[in-house]
Structures are given as C-alpha cells and as structure tokens.
Amino acid sequence: MLIKLELFGASRDFNNTNILEFNFKKVISIKDFRLEIIDYVKQKFNNNQDFIKIVNSSVFCSEENEIISDNYKITKEQKIGIIPPIGGG
Amino acid sequence: MLHTKIIDSNKDKILISKADEFIKSSSFGASIYFLGTVRNINQNKKVTGITYDVHDEMVLKSFTEIYSEANQKLGIEEKAVFIEHIKGYVGLGDISIIIAIACAHRDQAYVLSRFIIEEIKKRSPIWKKEHYEKDESSWLKGNPVLNEKI
After folding, report:
1. Which of A66, A70, A86 is facing B142, going by the closest CB pair?
2. What is the predicted ipTM?
3. Is the pLDDT of residue A11 over 60?
4. Which is nearest to B133 in space by CA: B52, B42, B53?
5. In chain A, whose CA is at the least distance from the CA of B38?
6. d(Cα A56, Cα A74) in Å, to the nearest integer?
C-alpha cells in the first residue's frame, strides 16, 4: 500500500520533491505512521532533533482535507498531508 | 456575502481595489480593511522577505468555516467579507493578507475583523519562511493545530 506524504511548511526541508513515499504491507494508524516518519528523518538526517520535533508537533490531514487523529487508520493508498505548527497572516 | 482566494505571488497581487469593489454597498455604514504586510525586522534580524506556504484547500475551507462561525458567535447577519492570502515570495512592505469587512455599524466591523484574523492565525494552515539580510532563511515557529478527532 503506497502512502504519499505531502510536505508543508518546515517539513518541506525533509525532501526536495515535497512528497515522501512510504510502502506498508497492512493497514497503519496515524500514530504508527508518525513513528515511521520519525524513523525516516532519523536515518536520513542523522537524528536531527529539530526535524523530529516538527514531526511530533504536527497533525495530519486526509485527502478530504480533514484533520485526522492518531487513531485514524489508513486503509487504502492515498495522499496524507503533514501539517506542522502554523503561523500565517 | 463572502469572497476567499489564495493569491500566487508569482502570478498575481493582492489588490485593495478588488476588496473595495466587493464590499462596497450603500446598506453598510462601516468598512474596515485589515492588511498584513512584511516588516523589515523580526527578532533583531533584518528581514528581506517572506515565503508563504499554504495548504490551499484547507485554508479556503478554514476561511469559510470561520465566516460561518462568526455568523453563529457574533450574530452579525448583514455583512460583506473579503479574504485573500498570498502564497509564495513576498517582499518588504508587500501585502500578505487582506481582510475587508463591511457591516451596518462600526462595532460589528471591528469585532468581526479581529475575530477573523485571530481565528486564521490559530487555524489556517499557512507557514512563513523568513529571509534575512545576513542569516540563513528559516521557517518561523508556529502554533500546533488542534488534533480534532473524526
């Protein structure tokens, strides 16, 4: 199951293409997905604590543009957005 | 009456004249224009510009939700609200957001304008990357979005 993580704000520094791709064999919760992203960041950026903090302080949004909780289960291939702390205006 | 739009700074600009055209009506006695602009100093660093990142769909959705909530919470029925936010690079002094309000009375207009900008700050997925004269560009620390369960 291919999950595309769309990057926004500070998380755009995780990748040049603004999308990260993850492949999972089974259904995964947002809580576990967050841990997978942290693993990616740890490996790719030498345990960069600022990046880990960004992942931990972010929420996620579904393809329907709804904020989804840590209990939300990703059951099919889709695009998920990561929403780091905001501050526009 | 609501107008919302994300303006890509590479293609377009936020224009006060457009807002003026939208909210102008003889049934409203009070108009307020709130403009957010890029200032030259932040945290003792000389700023040269800001790049705004935006989740377009969620931002537009949040603007509509804020407008609807204003109806319920503030009870201002007759009003015109024009909201545009920039995305992309914006230079010093340029407009990043406009909130133009027209209501029957001034009290309503002030309250509504303040309500909308404060809610946008709290809820709309918009991020700023500041560019400096001497230092490396950096994303500003924001406020975490509340995790709503669905």
Report:
1. A86
2. 0.92
3. yes
4. B42
5. A89
6. 18
